[in-house]
Design goal:
about 325 residues, mainly alpha, Rossmann fold, Tyrosyl-Transfer RNA Synthetase, 2 domains, two-stranded parallel sheet, 13 helices, binds adenosine-5'-diphosphate, binds tryptophan
């Protein structure tokens, strides 16, 4: 039986945190076991935010090491970077020509960016088109992402439908896959955990950092169960058992935080140690990234051939 196809990716814009892990990476590690899988580094997406050569380079290499340390085995999943496959940007242009501005103006990410900064760049506005190309070149059945990316996957699906309608059946319609109980992992301040809010617990934190971060989790002064501490704690420990402990220690915030520090350290330590081993051989990491790119290129270029035929530019 043909395996179902999975595709997803992350922008190399900073250190992955436990929100990325529980909202996305953990599902990938489980799903690659029985899917034909493509996981990539969205470096051209990151160019909207990172415009510095050295920072870009180190972020890409770091994210590749993070992927492997988080449990993505290159024997089971094609790991590659977006900029190695020129078909992504090529297809993005084609999608631009069949998509209207008012449609893209309805995207949450655009609205948020615009609310913050009046002069957003064209790359940010067009982001969903590049993301649609990332997805549709590989004909995935599922695109596992956190809740915040759901709309982008829906835009990819709409775009596929639109293209199929204009040029004839070409793209399989992808489905977003979101795990509901961890759909949004809260950060230290109770808002969504995100690099851009600076409220994260990085997945590869050192013990001293875990201590500081957990101690800085915002608690209300009302006594009882500290919501934000509990919400993070339940990611790594059974919720029912935890509820009993929190009720028994009601109001004892410091003790509860100390318990979370120890549980978090036990959870993070194996990741951190594995990462150090992988990071000790960068040439090998780059070799794996390059060979992943070669595999992905074959799939993407075959799809692009078909697309060019469909739109009428492939003459010889
Ligand atoms: P960030 O918001 O920190 O910049 P990214 O946008 O790079 O994170 O997200 C990478 C992946 O991790 C996406 O699939 C995203 O949906 C998921 N993700 C990010 N933050 C969270 C969170 N707090 N809870 C659940 N999933 C998340
Ligand atoms: N937009 C995603 C994010 O910010 C990253 C991404 C780019 C992606 N292209 C993708 C995710 C394709 C899944 C599929 O997290």
């Amino acid at each position: 039986m043909q395996k179902k196809i999975l595709l997803s990716g992350i922008k190399p814009t900073g250190r992955p945190h436990i929100g990325n892990y529980f909202g996305a990476i953990k599902q990938w590690v489980e799903m690659v076991e029985d899917h034909e899988s493509y996981i990539f580094i969205a470096d051209y997406h990151a160019l909207n935010f990172i415009q510095n050569k050295d920072e870009m380079k180190s972020n890409i290499v770091d994210l590749m090491i993070d992927y492997m340390a988080a449990g993505l085995d290159p024997e089971k999943v094609v790991l590659f970077k977006q900029s190695d496959i020129s078909e992504h940007t090529e297809l993005s242009w084609i999608f631009d020509t069949i998509t209207t501005m008012p449609y893209l103006m309805r995207a949450h990410a655009y609205k948020d960016a615009e609310a913050k900064d009046k002069e957003i760049c064209v790359g940010t506005f067009n982001y969903p088109m590049l993301m649609a190309a990332d997805i549709l070149l590989y004909s995935p059945d599922v695109v596992p992402v956190g809740q915040d990316q759901k709309q982008h996957v829906e835009i990819a699906r709409d775009t596929a439908q639109k293209f199929n309608h204009i040029f004839g059946e070409t793209f399989k319609l992808p489905e977003p896959k979101i795990i509901s109980e961890v759909a949004i992992v809260p950060g230290l301040d109770g808002r969504k955990m995100s690099k851009s809010y600076d409220n994260t617990i990085p997945l590869f934190s050192e013990y001293e950092d875990i201590k500081k971060l957990v101690m800085s989790i915002v608690t209300d002064s009302g006594g009882g169960i500290p919501e934000n501490v509990f919400a993070i704690h339940k990611l790594i420990r059974d919720e029912k058992e935890l509820k009993e402990i929190y009720e028994a220690k009601s109001g004892k915030y410091k003790e509860l935080k100390e318990m979370l520090i120890e549980d978090m350290e036990n959870f993070i330590k194996p990741f951190r140690e594995k990462r150090k081993i992988i990071a000790s051989d960068i040439p090998k990491v780059l070799e794996i990234l390059k060979s992943g790119g070669e595999k992905a290129k074959k799939v993407a270029s075959a799809k692009m051939e078909d697309i060019k035929k469909k739109i009428g530019v492939n003459l010889y």
